[in-house]
Task: inverse folding
């Protein structure tokens, strides 16, 4: 299923680019450590170098622990916060691209209500030539919010008949992570990272509620471990959606049409 695989590849490629933002301090530190270790090796046999070697060892350890340096913590929080914004945006791009791809190539996969009409802002016609998939996306955006997990799940269920996403008991943590980081994205972008009542409302039914309920007005300061948790949670959900969509295609068209390029030719 080449088109779906391409969407997955693009999503993961974007995640890898976001990873590079988070690793910038680590990358620089590793380069510096390697340079200093090379210096130790080159001059290690010189008796007069021993005092300097001990000092180098101390500096090397400091560089290795650069991320925990109190003077850099705030800067790393900004990096991790903005990386969460990029992760959530990348996921939204994936959903948008998925809807457009299906609309352009396999609109029969959509489960429309009887007599449902596609509605969109006519201004979209002013400067572009939208495809059928573009118009379907505009229509669905009037009904669903792709930055809200509940709305996304409803869209997948009602429009594409991809059911039971993130419903398993062991998936509760994944589901709550996505809710948290979608809420975090909103306050990072729109409220200078300060926790507000809308954030608390969005996470009220998660295990994170007790942690953040008393933090209204405080800044949300995310760590690298939380970025990693967000990355893995969104990746899990993307894989979930892709697997559900492929199963739906096989269910409708049969295994002989497993490759969507062949399906289009039919």
Result:
């Amino acid at each position: 299923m080449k088109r779906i695989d391409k969407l997955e590849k693009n999503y993961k490629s974007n995640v890898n680019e976001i990873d590079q933002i988070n690793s910038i301090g680590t990358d620089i530190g590793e380069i510096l450590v390697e340079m200093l270790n090379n210096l130790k090796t080159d001059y290690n046999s010189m008796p007069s170098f021993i005092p300097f070697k001990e000092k180098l060892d101390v500096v090397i350890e400091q560089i290795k622990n650069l991320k925990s340096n109190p003077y850099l913590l705030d800067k790393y929080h900004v990096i991790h916060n903005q990386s969460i914004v990029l992760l959530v945006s990348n996921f939204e791009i994936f959903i948008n691209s998925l809807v457009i791809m299906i609309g352009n190539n396999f609109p029969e996969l959509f489960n429309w209500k009887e007599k449902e009409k596609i509605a969109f802002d006519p201004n979209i016609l002013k400067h572009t030539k939208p495809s059928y998939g573009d118009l379907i996306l505009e229509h669905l955006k009037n009904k669903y919010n792709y930055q809200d997990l509940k709305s996304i799940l409803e869209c997948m269920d009602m429009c594409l008949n991809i059911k039971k996403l993130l419903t398993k008991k062991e998936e509760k943590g994944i589901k709550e992570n996505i809710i948290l980081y979608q809420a975090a994205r909103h306050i990072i972008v729109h409220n200078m990272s300060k926790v507000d009542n809308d954030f608390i409302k969005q996470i009220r039914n998660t295990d994170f509620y007790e942690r953040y309920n008393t933090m209204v007005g405080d800044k949300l300061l995310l760590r690298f471990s939380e970025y990693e948790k967000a990355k893995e949670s969104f990746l899990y959900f993307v894989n979930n959606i892709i697997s559900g969509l492929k199963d739906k295609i096989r269910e409708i068209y049969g295994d002989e049409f497993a490759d969507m390029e062949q399906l289009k030719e039919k």
